[in-house]
Fold this sequence. Notes:
Nucleotidyltransferase, domain 5, 5 strands, five-stranded mixed β-sheet
Amino acid sequence: MKKETPKPSYNLELELGAPEKIICGVDEVGRGPLAGPVITAAVILDPANIPHSLNDSKKLSAKKRAIIAEEILECAECAFGEASLEEIDELNILHATMLAMQRAVANLPRKVDHVLVDGNRLPTFEAPASAIIKGDQKSVSIAAASIIAKEKRDFLMKKLHEIHPEYGWNQNSGYGTKAHIEALNLVGPSRFHRKSFAPIRDLIR
């Protein structure tokens, strides 16, 4: 019988002193795509009102994720950060992502005592921070951030799809799917593509 992956919990936040201390979770969406910005989210959950179905965004159906995202936005303190195409191309995707994370935390309505970040890299924050590998599977605060960041970026890519329907961004969110690559080779890159990423860089030489 297949062993179920444990759902994220509030244990890391409790260990860091929540709810007396303000703990936020941070995650990003959009490091891998060939087009569009990278989006980050920061979330401070109310421990007395945590959405029951919180999970790693990748383990949720699109319909379920949209419902939970609305619940998070209604009951938690949330903020977003973004790094533009120009920043991605100038700084590289890693440093642009770190910048977007800093912006998300800075955009929260109050200062936090500790930041939990999904992954193994940390930008510099005003508050202490911890990098948590597979954090969206361990911390509900990070899981919440992953859900609302994905919803926001997917919505943005659907809006960009209305401008450039040929790339199928409403389906692939800018990732390098076969159909996306075929469209790139056929019509070339748009102004929303990342010029520093190999497939686009090779096409504009």
